[in-house]
Amino acid sequence: MNDAALPDISVVVPVHDEAGAAVDLAREIAQAFDGRAYEMIFVDDASRDPTLQELRSAMADLPTLRVLAHATNAGQSRAVRTGVLAARAPIVVTLDGDGQNPPADAPRLADALMAAPPDVAMVGGRRASRQDSASKRQASLWANRIRRRLLGDDADDTGCGLKAFRRDAFLRLPYFDHIHRYLPALMIREGYRNAYLDVGHRHRETGRSKYTNWGRLRASLSDLVGVMWLKSRARRPGAIAEF
Ligand SMILES: Nc1nc2c(ncn2[C@@H]2O[C@H](COP(=O)(O)OP(=O)(O)O)[C@@H](O)[C@H]2O)c(=O)[nH]1
Ligand SMILES: [Mg+2]
Known about the structure:
This protein has 243 residues and is an alpha/beta fold. It has a single domain (3-232), classed as Spore Coat Polysaccharide Biosynthesis Protein SpsA, Chain A (Alpha-Beta Complex), CATH 3.90.550. The protein contains eight helices and seven strands, in the order βαβαβαβαβαβααβα. Strands 3-2-1-4-6-5-7 form a seven-stranded mixed sheet, with helices on both faces. Helix 2 links the parallel strand 2 and strand 3 (65-70). Helix 5 (134-151) packs parallel to helix 8. The radius of gyration is 17 Å and the shape is globular. The mean pLDDT is 94. The structure holds guanosine-5'-diphosphate (GDP) and magnesium ion (MG). The site of magnesium ion has 5 residues, from loops.
């Protein structure tokens, strides 16, 4: 793709140790967006398995695939940010790299965002029937309830990796590790609105989850306090006039 043909949609996929899944996912994304002006950006976060080599080999027959790689492991949120910074489209769609989010749902989220008023910055996916263990589903249910009560955001599934957002809105948000779970609250803080659509969810077929319930809980407690502080320090100027 040259500069004269900039994409309308950039699909950003963070991957860490997802050999055997990442390339299949790239092919599914290519099918889902066939005929549209899109690019996909896989961000390898210093995988220790052959994820990066597999993705690089697939570039030969997937012309819309771009591959970026971190030298050092920096986490899912940093990988998403790296992809969004490199994205050339105004609309970004993110998906988990393990194939649990069905790519066929991604164009629907992007289209809903393109059709929405400009103050809607994000259309988040809501996993209607989640294919994870009972303990993970239970932990997630409580985490969402508590976060929603404390932050007053409007999301019941912030952990869903499938989201469409406006690139410029995302880049106005502060960055911290695990920010991907606080995008709804931080978009509202910036004066935007969010919308949600039900999406599918699949079993993880290869590799293993990078998160444990305990690890998530530990990070979430300090993140919650941090986001509450950010909210308490937000001031907005209303409409800005230029003369
Ligand atoms: N870039 C990057 N991606 C990660 C990291 N940990 C997890 N991911 C990606 O984030 C997504 C969700 O992680 P996953 O382990 O499937 O979490 P789960 O679905 O909640 O069990 C997958 O695409 C992972 O490859 C990380 O340290 N760096
Ligand atoms: Mg997963």
